[in-house]
Amino acid sequence: MMRKVFIITSVFFAVIGIVFTILPLGTIAFLPIGITFILSVISIQQSKSNQKKLPKLILFISALTFLVVIGKVVFVKDVIVPDKQFEQNKIEQKKEDIKDLQGL
Amino acid sequence: MKKNLLILFFLLLNFGLGFSQIKSNERLVYAASYNMSGLMTQLAQVTISTETVKTTKKNFLHLNLEATTFSKWDSFFKIRDLYETYVDPVTLKPELYKRSMYEGGYSKTEKYIFSPDGRKINATTRKKNGSETKKTVAIGGSTRDLISMIYKLRTVNFAKYNPGQTISFLIVFDEKEYPVYVKYMGLETVSAGVLGKRQCFKLSIAARTDKLRGKDKNLIWMTADAKEIPVLVRFSIPVGTGQLSISNASGI
């Protein structure tokens, strides 16, 4: 019974971990990933030798998401991509502003 | 007599220019972070800049605040906010205020034209669905917009203030007038990014609005020198807490 509870909760946190990894939440993703890791290890310990396939898979997922997050933190920098539409908007707005200011 | 009047005029003008320490072509860049589960996550870049704008009639100081989400967030919640004010370069009195916001699909633009006596604004608001509303709002003679208030705050000499002392402003935001109270909390040394460790004036901002939360939870640290550069801002709003920390400064 306890084994099932650990497996279900580890699956739940693994899903959250995957979502957090996809979203640009940075190191916050370590929180559900860490919980998944601990719960999957406990599940493995509580499983019989022929029942370890699923908890091992969850453990593998937590390790994989951990590596992806590390990779994103190291390689993906906080950058601003030039937004042509936004810049064009600003230029047009400024022309309008000058007209308004002339009338003041 | 005429000559004396001219000298007096130039003396007054110089006095006025000395009062305003806000220079043209100043550019301050901040990294905006939001507190998620106790960890600060960088969301956007906020840039405040100034430039001189000349018309055939007079010169204006263009105060500009731009908030842009980092590219990694653009697919999830894109922000492109622009707050602009054209002010008198000496008194920093606003004459034209514009706000153009795009936040996760929601967009809205606002334009306030301040009357010469500063006692009313002609407000034009345009929403995403294309609806446009125009109205005249009566305001106090000293009421400003949010951006010019921030710059005006930088001209206050806090070195003469005692901790606990408060100054107040009236601002117009979303076509409503709000009193804003700024409490000087004393000197504090903070890490100011590219500017290194700096001694700063610590200020607490409070306003009669539900947009800000908590007592002394909305704080600004400004360098304790003549430039009074805001280097760190901590805010508490209904949906959480966050901060703005300076990442670049030029033209100061």
Could you describe the 3D structure shown?
The complex is a heterodimer of chains A (104) and B (252). Chain A has one domain (2-78). Chain A is 77% helix and 0% strand. Chain A has helices at residues 2-22, 30-46, 53-75, 84-102. The relative contact order of chain A is 0.13. The model of chain A has no long low-confidence stretch (mean pLDDT 91). Chain B has 252 residues and is mainly beta. Chain B has one domain (21-250): Beta Barrel (YmcC-like fold), CATH 2.40.360. Chain B is built from 3 helices and 14 strands. In chain B, strand 10 and strand 11 (197-207) form a beta hairpin.
TL;DR of this structure?
The complex is a heterodimer of chains A (104) and B (252). Chain A is built from four helices and no strands.
Helices and strands, with pairings:
The complex is a heterodimer of chains A (104) and B (252).
Chain A: H1 2-22, H2 30-46, H3 53-75, H4 84-102
Helix pairs in contact in A: 1-2, 1-3, 2-3
Chain B: H1 2-19, E1 27-36, E2 39-54, E3 59-69, H2 71-74, E4 80-87, E5 94-103, E6 106-114, E7 120-127, E8 132-138, H3 146-154, E9 166-173, E10 176-191, E11 197-207, E12 219-223, E13 230-237, E14 240-250
Antiparallel strand pairs in B: 1-2, 1-14, 2-3, 3-4, 4-5, 5-6, 6-7, 7-8, 9-10, 10-11, 11-12, 12-13, 13-14
Which features characterize this protein?
heterodimer, A: 104 residues, mainly alpha, B: 252 residues, mainly beta, YmcC-like fold
Provide the helix percentage of chain B.
10-25%
The secondary-structure class of chain A comes to mainly alpha
Radius of gyration of chain A: 24 Å
Gap between N and C termini of chain A: 77 Å
Strand percentage of chain B lies at over 45%
Radius of gyration of chain B: 19 Å
What is the domain total for the residues of chain B? 1
Overall geometric form of chain B: globular
Order of helices and strands of chain A: HHHH
Mean pLDDT of chain B: 86
Sequence stretches where pLDDT stays below 50 over 5 or more residues of chain B: 1-20
Number of helices of chain A: 4
Strand order of the largest sheet of chain B: 8-7-6-5-4-3-2-1-14-13-12-11-10-9
User: What's the helical proportion of residues of chain A?
Assistant: over 70%
